[in-house]
Write a structure and sequence with these properties.
Layout (H helix, E strand, L loop, with lengths): L11 E3 L10 E4 L7 H7 L5 E5 L3 H7 L5 E4 L6 H9 L3 E4 L8 H11 L5 E4 L6 H9 L11 E5 L2 E7 L2 E6 L5 E6 L3 E8 L8 E4 L8 E2 L4 E6 L3 E7 L3
C-alpha cells in the first residue's frame, strides 16, 4: 500500500483482434541496459515513459522526461530525483516493505492507465532472483490485457498465451527460442522457422524449442493451451 500522502499508483507485434488506439508505455527498470542507443531508436514521440525507481538513470541518459517515477526510491540517484521532480514528473513513493517489486508496480500503473502495449528496458542483470522474477512478471493474469515485451539491443522476449498468436516480420538467420514456463505448452504451431511445429507439445524444462532459425519473412507462433516465452535474437 502507498505511504500516507503519496499518490495512489495503480518489433514483435501481437496478432490483432482489436485495434489499439492508446499510446504504448515504455518502462525503464534498474537492471542492465547494454545498448542504450537501440533503446533510443525504439522510442516514439507519443510513448508514455515510466521509470521504476533507479531506472530513472536511463531516462536521464536519454534526456527524456518520465511521466512517473514509481517505487520505494531506494535506488534512484538523488540528482535524478531532484531533476525529474523539478521538471514535473509524478513521484509515486511506496514503502520499502511491500508485496511487489518496483517493476511490478510500474507495470500495474501502465495497465491501470490503459497501456496498449508495454516495452520493458533494463529488466535483466546480475542478480538471478530479480532476473527470474522479471522474466516471469508478464505471465501474471492481471497483465493479460496488454502485450509486454522485454528488449535490449538485438534481443527481445515476448509471452505467447494459450489461444493467441504472435506474428512478426522476420529476417533470415535470426534465432528464435520457444520456452514453456508453466507445465506444458500444447498445440504449438509455427511458420517461417527452419524447424516447424504443427500442433506440437513443449514440456516445461525441455530444450526442444531452443535455437530455431528464421527462414521466412513472415513468422508466427501459435499456442492452444499454456504459456510460452518467445525469445528473438536478431542476427543484424
Amino acid at each position: 500500500m502507498p505511504a500516507e500522502g503519496v499518490v495512489d499508483a495503480l518489433n514483435f507485434k501481437p496478432s490483432a483482434q482489436r485495434v489499439f488506439i492508446l499510446p504504448r508505455t515504455i518502462i525503464f527498470a534498474n537492471g542492465e541496459l547494454h545498448n542504450i542507443e537501440a533503446a533510443r531508436a525504439t522510442l516514439r514521440a507519443d510513448d508514455v515513459i515510466i521509470a521504476a525507481d533507479g531506472g530513472a538513470k536511463y531516462c536521464r541518459a536519454l534526456n527524456i522526461l518520465p511521466r512517473a517515477i514509481i517505487g520505494d526510491l531506494d535506488s534512484i540517484l538523488p540528482d535524478d530525483l531532484e531533476e525529474f521532480t523539478r521538471r514535473g514528473a509524478r513521484i509515486l513513493k511506496y514503502p520499502k516493505r511491500k508485496d511487489e517489486t518496483d517493476l511490478e508496480l510500474a507495470i500495474d500503473l501502465a495497465v491501470a492507465e490503459g497501456a496498449s502495449e508495454i516495452i520493458l528496458f533494463g529488466v535483466l542483470g546480475g542478480r538471478w532472483d530479480q532476473t527470474l522474477a522479471n522474466l516471469l512478471i508478464p505471465a501474471l493474469d492481471k497483465f493479460s490485457s496488454a502485450p509486454i515485451r522485454l528488449m535490449d539491443g538485438t534481443q527481445e522476449i515476448a509471452l505467447v498465451r494459450g489461444g493467441s498468436t504472435l506474428r512478426w516480420r522476420g529476417h533470415a538467420g535470426d534465432t528464435v527460442s520457444l520456452i514453456p514456463i508453466h507445465d506444458e505448452a500444447r498445440g504449438v504451431t509455427t511458420s517461417g522457422l527452419e524447424y516447424p511445429l504443427r500442433d506440437g507439445v513443449l514440456k516445461m524444462g525441455s530444450t526442444l524449442g531452443v535455437s530455431n532459425v528464421v527462414v521466412g519473412e513472415e513468422v508466427s507462433v501459435s499456442v492452444r493451451d499454456g504459456l510460452l516465452m518467445c525469445v528473438l535474437i536478431r542476427s543484424t
